[in-house]
């Protein structure tokens, strides 16, 4: 096998135009690692924030030229000596080791990643489909069901608001909440109302033409049990007021403009609710990907609308990503079937 790979890299922090296509050495395979030939690389909001330098302090091991990308789908081509769970030829979906180990991300032909971040996908699931699952799916899963986050249990009859329901995380969160038995209100623009309805939303709200607080007060006069805010950054005027006492507000961390979180947590507590700033915990990433894959395989979940770009068109993908108005998910075609 060749020892080099084609990758989209940045050589300094900055805008989307910083990307270049380059040849790099394939990262070294360690004992607990899996080497994956990348078919599709997910393009997630964290990517442009990394590229722009917002997360430089959280990436002390980052080295230029830097390969971004926090998730992927592909085929296993080699494994470390301690890996028995995966074999050459396995089709997988995976997170990356960008934050934990400073290894290159998924915008490249090959990805080396710790085995705990990898999950097998079934024979009837395409690699294209699998690429939509890891980051967006696991983020939604943890926000809803994590004990320190939404703490939602299957079979509970709760009223939930998903703020920003038409994006990648929102697309999964709506469906997962419905699967768990919750009643789900959503916010999105009018252009995406039909899309969120197709995901199962019970009470879609067009935030551009309707008052979210007025609509929620009609739908849930006693207050909501849970809000999962995929947008944060003050997109809801007073979310705490929408919750009943004992309710929870789970804000997906934007990594750039979350405000004075400690003050917000304290204020929420004074008003009888909890505010939680949710970061993804990747300790059980592979297992949680598999949970979501199983639900897709069983017909319980549909995969989000996805727009694909070629690796060489990464600049345009990031320009679209940075608008903050992506319907569903974006991904890069790297070496998969087109």
Walk me through what this model shows.
With 338 residues, the protein is of the alpha/beta class. It has 10 helices and 16 strands. Strands 3, 5, 6, 7, 8, 15 and 16 form a 7-stranded mixed β-sheet that branches. Strands 11-10-9-12-13-14 form a 6-stranded parallel β-sheet, sandwiched between helices. A 3-stranded antiparallel β-sheet has the order 2-1-4, with no helix packed on it. The chain is globular. The two termini are 23 Å apart.
Concise structural overview:
With 338 residues, this protein is an alpha/beta fold.
List the helices and strands and how they pair.
Blueprint lengths: L3 E7 L9 E6 L7 E11 L1 H7 L14 E2 L3 E9 L11 E5 L2 H4 L8 E5 L3 E3 L6 H4 L3 H12 L13 E5 L4 H13 L2 E6 L4 H6 L4 E4 L5 H8 L4 E6 L13 E10 L8 H10 L3 E5 L6 H13 L8 E5 L3 H8 L7 E5 L5
Parallel strand pairs: 9-10, 9-12, 10-11, 12-13, 13-14, 15-16
Antiparallel strand pairs: 1-2, 1-4, 3-5, 3-7, 3-16, 5-6, 6-8
Throw out a few tags for this protein:
338 residues; alpha/beta; Quinone Oxidoreductase, Chain A, domain 1; Rossmann fold; 2 domains; seven-stranded mixed β-sheet; six-stranded parallel β-sheet; 10 helices
Whole-number mean pLDDT: 93
Shape: globular
Number of strands: 16
What is the name of the CATH superfamily of the largest domain?
Answer: Medium-chain alcohol dehydrogenases, catalytic domain
Low-confidence regions: none
**SSE sequence, one letter per element:** EEEHEEEHEEHHEHEHEHEEHEHEHE
Class from helix and strand fractions? alpha/beta
CATH topology of the largest domain: Quinone Oxidoreductase, Chain A, domain 1
- Helix residue percentage: 25-40%
Largest sheet: 7 strands, mixed
